[in-house]
Structures are given as structure tokens and as C-alpha cells.
């Protein structure tokens, strides 16, 4: 898989791409992550990527640099064009997008290449949304300074699911939001910490009883904290 990130702050992505599971995935050749500076696709001395909103307030990313950047990355013209490439997907991060969840993340594992558009300010010219972007994603109902952090969240949640990265597949399957349940409680050594003890069932060695306990705990936690997940 190839992930292209188009942003005006490429340096923000270096710590995320260069650490932990994402770095391991890159080193193993499971994913290539290319971060592109949007300003490199703008003509003129000042490299302006934005302009004032017509009839509104704030600054908006212009259509031309975004179209040029995506076309340069993919190697073909985006509009007008005859047909979409089913192996690639162009994603915009925006408060107007679909809420990011585990099911949506898994959908993107099927593509060979993802292009992530990472805006700031008041967002992008509407023509980008209508004629360039194929998916629009939000990570929550709150406001942050830009889409860099949502893009990083997306990359991290996606890359860790790539087959061949995590050796213990069962660990991935049993994490929170797999099967619409929050995760069950976890304990480790020591068995007794200041009188606070690990549940006996986890020390029993009876795998069936342990799985039943974990299932009950996951259901109870989900019911208390996220009953909306159970309704799904």
C-alpha cells in the first residue's frame, strides 16, 4: 500500500511516520508513506495555497494547487477524466465527513493507494470536494487547528491492520470496537498490588472461563459507556 499525504506542514508527520508500528510497517515494505508539501505545486514567488472566501469569512485552500498536487502524485488528470481508478482513493479530512470508526478504517485496506488531502483554515474550495475527493472523513464533533492530527490518526489506525505487521492476529481481533464492543479489562504482574488483586478467573488457566469472563466484562463496559455500539 502507498499513502500520499498532501499538506502545508510536512514536517509535522515525521515523528509519526518514523516511530513505532508505522516505522516497522515501512521497514518491512508493507506500506510506503510519502508526504508532499502542497506549496511545491504552486506557481509564483509567494507560494500561496489559500485565498479569502467569496462572500464569507476566513481563508480557503484554492482548487488549483490541490488538483495539481493530486495529479502530480497519481500521474494523470483528475478532471475531466473518463473513469475512476478502483485501486486508488482520494480522501479529504473535514468536519463534514463521515465519522471515522473501525468499520470505515477496514474498508480502506482494500485499496492499493490512498491520497490524503490535509487542509487548514476554513477548508477547501467546494470544487475540490465535488470533483476531486472521493471520501470525506471526520474524527469527531470538535474543532482543532487543522487536519494534520486527523490524518495521523487515520494513518495509525489503518497501518496497524495491514496483514503481516502484527504477528498475533488474535490481539487485533479482540481490541476495542472489533465486533462493536469496548475492550475487556487487562491485568499483569504482580497478582497483588497493595491489596488490589487480579480476578481469580484470570489465574485459573481455564481458557473457556477466561473467555466467558472477558466477554461479560466487555458487554458490561460497553453497556455502561457506549450503549450506542450495542444497538449496532
Secondary-structure map with pairings?
Blueprint: E1 2-7, H1 14-17, H2 20-27, E2 32-37, E3 50-52, E4 59-61, H3 63-74, E5 88-99, H4 102-107, E6 113-117, H5 126-131, E7 135-138, H6 148-159, H7 169-173, E8 192-193, E9 196-197, H8 207-225, H9 227-231
Parallel strand pairs: 1-2, 1-6, 5-6, 5-7
Antiparallel strand pairs: 3-4, 8-9
Question: If you had to describe this structure to a student in words, what would you say it looks like?
Answer:
With 232 residues, the protein is an alpha/beta fold. The chain has two domains: 2-159, Alpha/beta knot, CATH 3.40.1280.10; 174-231, Trp Operon Repressor, Chain A. Helix content is 33%, strand content 19%. It has helices at 14-17, 20-27, 63-74, 102-107, 126-131, 148-159, 169-173, 207-225, 227-231, and strands at 2-7, 32-37, 50-52, 59-61, 88-99, 113-117, 135-138, 192-193, 196-197. The strands form three sheets. The chain has a five-stranded parallel sheet with strand order 2-1-6-5-7. A two-stranded antiparallel sheet has the order 3-4. The longest helix is centred in the last third of the chain and has 19 residues, at 207-225. The chain is elongated. The model has no long low-confidence stretch (mean pLDDT 91).
Amino acid at each position: 500500500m502507498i499513502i500520499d499525504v498532501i499538506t502545508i506542514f510536512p514536517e509535522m508527520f515525521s515523528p509519526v511516520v518514523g516511530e513505532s508500528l508505522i516505522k516497522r510497517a515501512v521497514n518491512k515494505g508493507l506500506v510506503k508513506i510519502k508526504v508532499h508539501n502542497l506549496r511545491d505545486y504552486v506557481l509564483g514567488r509567494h507560494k500561496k495555497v489559500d485565498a479569502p472566501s467569496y462572500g464569507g469569512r476566513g481563508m480557503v485552500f484554492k482548487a488549483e494547487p490541490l488538483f495539481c498536487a493530486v495529479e502530480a502524485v497519481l500521474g494523470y488528470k483528475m478532471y475531466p477524466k473518463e473513469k475512476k481508478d478502483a485501486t486508488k482513493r482520494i480522501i479529504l479530512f473535514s468536519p463534514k465527513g463521515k465519522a471515522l470508526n473501525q468499520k470505515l478504517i477496514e474498508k480502506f485496506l482494500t485499496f492499493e493507494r490512498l491520497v490524503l488531502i490535509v487542509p487548514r483554515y476554513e477548508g477547501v474550495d467546494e470544487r475540490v470536494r465535488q470533483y476531486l475527493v472521493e471520501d470525506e472523513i471526520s474524527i469527531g464533533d470538535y474543532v482543532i487547528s487543522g487536519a494534520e492530527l486527523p490524518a495521523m490518526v487515520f494513518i495509525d489506525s489503518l497501518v496497524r491492520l495491514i496483514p503481516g505487521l502484527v504477528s498475533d492476529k488474535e490481539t487485533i481481533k479482540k481490541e476495542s470496537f472489533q465486533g462493536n464492543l469496548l475492550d475487556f479489562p487487562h491485568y499483569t504482574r504482580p497478582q497483588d498490588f497493595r491489596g488490589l488483586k487480579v480476578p481469580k478467573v484470570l489465574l485459573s488457566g481455564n481458557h473457556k472461563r477466561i473467555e466467558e469472563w472477558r466477554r461479560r466484562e466487555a458487554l458490561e463496559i460497553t453497556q455502561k459507556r457506549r450503549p450506542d455500539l450495542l444497538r449496532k
